[in-house]
Amino acid sequence: MNALVIYDSNFGMTKLVAEEIVNNLDGNAKTLSVKNLRNSDLKDVDLVIWGSPINGWKPTVATMDAMNHLSKEDIHGVKFTTFDTRVKQFFHGDAKDQMAAKIRALGGEPITESKAFYVKGKEGPLFEGETENAGKWAKAIMSKV
Length: 145
Fold this sequence. Notes:
Elements: E1 2-7, H1 13-23, E2 28-33, E3 47-53, H2 61-68, H3 72-75, E4 79-87, H4 96-105, E5 109-110, E6 115-119, H5 130-142
Parallel strand pairs: 1-2, 1-3, 3-4, 4-5, 4-6
Helix pairs in contact: 1-5
């Protein structure tokens, strides 16, 4: 299985989650910053996991720009899921579901529910146990591939 974890990260927390996910996926898996993503990177990929911090109640501008440059040919039939990193508060926005809706509209096949990972304050660090949660989530994803 070829997996790609595409992420954007403002202060490194989303990148840490992405790396932990890759460390717990079987097969050929790698991380890629959304800023370096080319549509050709999605060729021959079986699973795509998108991650973004919540920025202004939604995914980052770089994440949405990258998604807006995708075509149905790039993503149709590819299994996917999404995650976001967020501050733990009552009102926090939602990046993961917005990303999932965009990928689903392009014909991606959701493999599991999207996941939120929590950060202490705007710049982090991650709450205790969140990297372990990312690893467990990756293993759960593998059971559905």
